[in-house]
C-alpha cells in the first residue's frame, strides 16, 4: 500500500492520539527490535513520527508497526480505522440469501446496520466486534488446525466436542494441543501473524456433551436429545482472559471473555447471522448473512442457517446482528449449516453443575 499524504497525516494523528513517544518506543523495542532513537536526532515529535512511518513503509515493516500499536490499544477508534483501511483487521464477508459471499466495505456494512438496527450506534457495534476478535481462537493439534473456539471464562474455551474427541479418547495427547488467539493476516506478509498461543491445563476437560448418533453417522435421521449438544469446555494452563491482549506489551488491556447469558433472544427465519471462525484453519474471518437464519429443528436444540462456513469452522460462535450469542457452529447438512443452541447448551451446563463468571465488560 503506497501512502498518500492524507493517509500519512491520519497515521500521525492516530499515533499521536493513542500513545506517547515513550510508549511507542517501548512497543518498537519489544515487538520490532527497533528504537525510536533511530528517528529522533534534532526533530520535533511530529517529524519523528513522519520519519518513523516513512522508514517503516520503505523497509516493508509498516504493517507490523500498525499491528503492534493496535495490539497495545485494540479499542482505540483511530487505530481500529487505520487497521481496517490497511487490511489488518479480520476479513468480513457479507452474503444475502443464496448469493455468493463478498468482502464487505465499511460503507456497505454500516448500511446493513442502519437498515436492520436503526437505533444502533455503529461505533459501539465495531467496538464489540473488536472485543470478540480478541476472544475467538484457533484450536490446533500437533501444529495442525482442527477447529475454532472462544473464551467463556478467564481460562475456559468452548468448542464443539467432536473437535476434541480424539483428545478425550486418548488418541492425541493434551500436550500436543494449542489454542491460538489473534491469528490474523497482515498484508504483504508471507506468513500470518502468529498471535498468542496457550496450552491446555493438566485437568483440561471441564465439561462436555457428545453429538447425537445420527450426527456421528453424518445423517439427519433422528433428532438429537437435549443431552446431545456436541460441546466441550477446555481449561487452559493460563487465564488468557485476564492476561494482556499482547504478551509483549503488559500495558495492553486484558483479553476478556464472552459472558453466557441466562436469557437468549428470539430469532426468526431470515434474520441475520454472524459466524466468527477460522475456516480451513485460515486467519480469523467474520461471515455475515443478512438473511442467514432458516429456523430451528423440531425440538429447538439445533439452529439451521445459510451463513457460509468451511472445515475448521466447527466450534465457532454464532451471533445475531447485535452480537447476541445464540449458537455453536457444528456441521454442514445437505442444504444448510447447523449449530447447537446456546440456550440448550447453557441449560445442560447448569444440569451438570457448571457455573460461569460474568465477563469483564
UniProtKB/TrEMBL annotation:
Pfam families: EAD1 (PF19955), Trypsin_2 (PF13365)
Stated name of the protein: Effector-associated domain-containing protein
Span of domain Effector-associated: 1-86
Organism: Anaerolinea thermophila (strain DSM 14523 / JCM 11388 / NBRC 100420 / UNI-1)
UniProt superkingdom: Bacteria
InterPro entries, per database record: EAD1, Peptidase_S1_PA, Peptidase_S1_PA_chymotrypsin
Endpoints of the signal sequence: none
